[in-house]
Amino acid sequence: MQSISNDAELHSYLEPHQISVGTAGGLEAGIHALRHTLASIGSSQEYVLLSIDFSNAFNRCSRQAFLDACQIHTPALARYIHYTYGTPALLHTRQQSFLSQEGTQQGDPLGMLLFSLVAQPLVLYIQATFRPLLNLWMADDGNVVAPIDVAQKIYEYIKSEGPPQGLHMKVTKTKFWYPTMSSDLLEKFDCNVLCNRDGTAAEGITLLGAAFGSPSHIRSHFSKFVSKTESILLSLKDIDDPQIAFQLQRYCASTCLVSHLLRCTPPGLLQTPVSTLDSITRGGFADIHGIPLALLQPQKFSWTQACLPIRHEGLGLTPASRFADAAYVRSVTDTSELSGVLTEAFQDKHPCLPEKNHTRCHKPYPRHP
Question: How far is 356 from 19, CA to CA, in rounded Å?
Answer without folding.
Answer: 21
